[in-house]
């Protein structure tokens, strides 16, 4: 096993991903149940304040109130980075990994489970429209997320059961400068630079 200790410094703000409403999943599933009301009537009958609360995402908090990322969010970033970089077909480390999701799930472990986000700035709110093309035409909804400003840092370990995977992990971390962690990555949120700590 080889352990890499890393520090990420966010060059862009990072958005929270935890639903603000504990029952959001159940509410979403229930909203798909068939009923006699038309979609337009349901939209008109919605309480706007309730919808804003349900659309809000944030950061989980430690017992002392500090925001953090879960280890699985780092794994998710690794999978996204590997998936994209493997498309280059240029012989990079990601191209060499077959069944990369199984490798990341079973052989590469970020730690600790809760990775505190260090920031001295207040947590803000990012409000944005979400657009989707549906069979009924374009739909627009409002999304709100807690937002931690650029300059925040996190420190964690990456435990690789096979030392041969360390170059791939470094490659994925380099990719974080282009595509980050968290929501709205296509708008540059969650981008970071990293350094290896001894």
Q: pLDDT under 50 segments (min length 5)? A: 32-52
CA-CA gap between termini: 16 Å
Report the major sheet: 5 strands, mixed
Q: Helical percent range? A: 25-40%
Shape category: globular
- Whole-number average pLDDT? 84
**Computed CA radius of gyration, to the nearest angstrom:** 19 Å
* Total number of beta strands: 11
Relative strand content: 25-35%
Tell me the quaternary state: single chain
Number of helices: 7
What's the order of the H and E elements? EEEHHHEEHHHEEEEEHE
**What structural category do the secondary elements indicate?**
alpha+beta
Count of spatially separate domains = 1
Keywords:
198 residues, alpha+beta, 5-stranded mixed sheet, 4-stranded antiparallel sheet, 32% strand, globular
Walkthrough of the structure:
There is one protein chain. The protein is an alpha+beta fold and about 200 residues long. It has helices spanning about 25-30, 40-45, 50-55, 70-85, 95, 100-105, 165-175, and strands at about 1-10, 15, 20, 55-60, 70, 110, 115, 125-135, 135-150, 155-160, 190-195. It is globular and about 45 Å long. It starts with a strand and ends with a strand. Residues about 30-50 have low confidence and may be disordered.
